[in-house]
Write a structure and sequence with these properties.
Blueprint (H helix, E strand, L loop, with lengths): L9 H13 L6 H17 L1 H12 L3 H27 L13 E9 L2 E5 L7 H13 L2 E5 L5 H14 L5 E3 L4 H11 L4 E5 L2 H12 L5 E4 L5 E4 L5 H13 L11 E5 L3 H16 L14 H10 L4 E4 L3 E2 L4 E2 L2 E4 L16 E7 L2 H9 L6 E5 L3 H10 L4 E4 L13 E2 L5 E2 L1 E2 L2 H6 L1 E9 L16 H7 L3
Parallel strand pairs: 2-3, 2-5, 3-4, 5-6, 7-8, 7-14, 8-13, 12-13, 14-15
Antiparallel strand pairs: 1-19, 6-17, 9-12, 10-11, 16-18
GO molecular function: aldehyde dehydrogenase (NAD+) activity
Organism: Solitalea agri
Family: Belongs to the aldehyde dehydrogenase family.
Length: about 475
C-alpha cells in the first residue's frame, strides 16, 4: 500500500513502521533482496531527473553526478545484492572445550525502525547509501533529505514514494532544525544515522542519548594533505586539484589544508595552478565546476579570503554563487580559516622542514576524517599511518578510498562514530545476537553441586 506521506502524521507514520517491522515482513532474505533490486531499478528509471536535480542544487556536471553520487550507489547496491545471503547467514565461532558438547552461533538481527539524516553536499548518495544498509539489514526506515538541496529532496521523495510503502520506507521533508528535534525528542528510533557537521552531530548525539538510541555519526573536520620531498609532484598536483575542487570543495573528505616540504613548495604551487586551468579553464565559472550551495555558505567562504595572501584565484560572483579555485598562504593558525572546516574551494598552503612540524600542526585539529600523504618513501608512509589517528585516507591520492565497498568508511573522535559501506553498512544496521546450543546426549555434571573433588577437573578446562 502506497499512501501520501503528507497526509500522515509523523507519530502515526512511526507507529505504522513499528507495526510493520514487528510483523516480521522485513526479515526474509527474499524480501530484502527484492527491495534492493526495486531500489536499483527505481534509480535507473529516474537517472535523468536525479542529474537535473543535482545540477539545480549544486551545478554538478552529469559526469560528476554519476561518479560521486549515482554510480557509487549502484556499486553499493550491486555489492549488497551479490553478498546479502552470505551476510545474513549465522556465523559459527569455535566453542571452548569446557562447554562441550555445545556449539556457538552469532546471528545478525535487524535493529528495527531507523532514521537516516542526510547532508546537502552529496544529497543523493549520502542518503541512499545508508538506506541500502538499512534495507539489507532488514529494517524499516525514515529518511530526512537535506532541505538545502531542495530539488534533490523532491526527486528522492518521488523515488521512495513510488517504490516502497510508507510503512516500510518513508521520506520526511522540512526544516531540519525543526523536524529532526521533533522526531527525536518525541519518538524513539532504534538507530539514528547522521551525516553532517560536527556541531549538529553533537546535538544529534545529545538527543539520542536521552532515549538510549545508538547513533552513527559521519562528521567532518580538517583533513590534512602532506606532500613529501620524495614524491611524484606532477601526479600529486593533479590529484590534489581533483580532490580539493570536486563539488567546489564541498566534500567532507576534501583536503582541507596542504603541507608541502619547503624544497618542493614553489614547484608544487605552479603545477597546481597549471591543473586548475587545465581542468576548469581560465574561467571556471564557465567550465565543469560546481557552485556554492547557498548565499549563507557563500558569505562565510568569502570572508575566509581575507585571512591570508591569495596566490591563485580569489574571484567571486554572488549571483552565480561562484568562488574560484583558490590557493592561499600566510594564514594564521588562530584564524577561522584554520579552525573551521572550510568546506569550499579554498586551499591554505603551509611549508614544513621536518615531519614533527606536520604533526604539531595536525594536533591543533586532531582526529581528521581523512588524511592524504604523497610520498615515495615507505618509511614516511608507515610513520604517518602508525602515529596519526584518522578515519581513512590515501597514499598518493585523494578521495578514492570511499570507492571501495570492501573497506569501512567512518571517522574517529570528533570526526565521527561508527562506519559503513559494503558489509560494514549491513553490520551498522544490525546487531549481533549470540546463541549457544548444547546437545542432550552427554552431560559432564561438573558444574553442579556438590563440588567435592571437582576443582582439579575444572582447572583442566579453565587454565590460569
Amino acid at each position: 500500500m502506497i499512501a501520501e506521506i503528507e497526509q500522515t502524521t509523523l507519530g502515526s507514520l512511526i507507529s505504522k513502521q513499528r507495526k510493520y517491522f514487528n510483523s516480521g515482513a522485513t526479515l526474509s532474505y527474499e524480501f530484502r533482496l527484492q527491495q534492493l533490486k526495486k531500489l536499483k531499478q527505481a534509480i535507473r528509471s529516474n537517472e535523468e531527473a536525479i542529474f537535473n536535480a543535482l545540477k539545480r542544487d549544486l551545478n554538478k556536471h552529469e559526469f560528476e553526478s554519476y561518479g560521486t553520487e549515482v554510480g557509487i550507489v549502484y556499486e553499493e547496491l550491486n555489492f549488497a545484492i551479490k553478498h546479502l545471503k552470505k551476510w545474513m547467514k549465522p556465523v559459527r565461532p569455535s566453542t571452548p572445550m569446557a562447554l562441550f558438547p555445545s556449539s556457538s552461533y552469532i546471528h545478525k538481527d535487524p535493529l528495527g525502525c531507523v532514521l537516516i539524516i542526510a547532508p546537502w553536499n552529496y544529497p543523493f548518495q549520502l542518503l541512499i547509501n545508508p538506506l541500502i544498509g538499512a534495507i539489507a539489514g532488514g529494517n524499516c526506515t525514515i529518511l530526512k533529505p537535506s532541505e538545502l538541496a531542495p530539488a534533490t529532496a523532491v526527486i528522492i521523495e518521488k523515488i521512495i514514494r513510488e517504490t516502497f510503502g510508507p510503512e516500510y520506507v518513508a521520506t520526511v521533508q522540512g526544516d531540519g532544525a525543526q523536524v529532526i528535534p521533533d522526531m527525536m525528542n518525541n519518538h524513539r528510533f532504534d538507530l539514528v544515522f547522521f551525516t553532517g557537521s560536527i556541531p549538529v552531530g553533537y546535538a544529534i548525539a545529545e538527543m539520542a542519548a536521552k532515549k538510549l538510541t545508538p547513533v552513527i555519526l559521519e562528521l567532518g573536520g580538517k583533513s590534512p594533505c602532506i606532500v613529501d620531498k620524495e614524491v611524484d609532484l606532477n601526479n600529486a598536483a593533479k590529484r590534489i586539484v581533483w580532490g580539493k575542487f570536486t563539488n567546489a570543495g564541498q566534500t567532507c573528505v576534501a583536503p582541507d589544508y596542504l603541507m608541502v616540504h619547503h624544497s618542493r613548495k614553489q614547484e608544487l604551487i605552479e603545477l597546481i595552478k597549471k591543473y586548475i586551468t587545465e581542468f576548469y579553464t581560465d574561467s571556471p565559472s564557465q567550465g565543469d565546476y560546481g557552485s556554492i550551495i547557498n548565499n549563507r555558505r557563500f558569505d562565510t567562504l568569502k570572508k575566509y579570503l581575507d585571512q591570508g595572501n591569495i596566490i591563485c584565484g580569489g574571484q567571486t560572483n554572488e549571483e552565480k554563487l561562484y568562488i574560484s579555485p583558490t590557493l592561499i598562504e600566510n594564514v594564521s593558525m588562530d584564524s577561522p580559516l584554520m579552525n573551521d572546516e572550510i568546506f569550499g574551494p579554498i586551499l591554505p598552503i603551509f611549508e614544513f622542514h621536518s615531519y614533527d612540524e606536520t604533526f604539531e600542526l595536525i594536533k591543533q585539529n586532531p582526529n581528521p576524517l581523512a588524511f592524504y600523504l604523497f610520498t615515495k618513501n615507505k618509511a614516511t608512509e608507515q610513520l604517518y599511518i602508525n602515529k596519526l589517528p584518522f578515519g581513512g585516507g590515501c597514499i598518493n591520492n585523494t578521495l578514492i578510498h570511499l570507492g571501495n565497498p570492501k573497506v569501512p568508511f567512518g571517522g574517529v573522535g570528533n570526526s565521527g562514530i561508527g562506519n559503513y559501506h559494503g558489509k560494514f553498512s549491513f553490520d551498522a544496521f544490525t546487531r549481533m545476537k549470540s546463541v549457544l546450543k548444547t546437545q542432550t546426549w552427554f552431560d559432564s555434571g561438573i558444574q553442579y553441586a556438590p563440588f567435592k573433588d571437582k576443582l582439579k577437573m575444572l582447572r583442566m578446562f579453565l587454565r590460569y
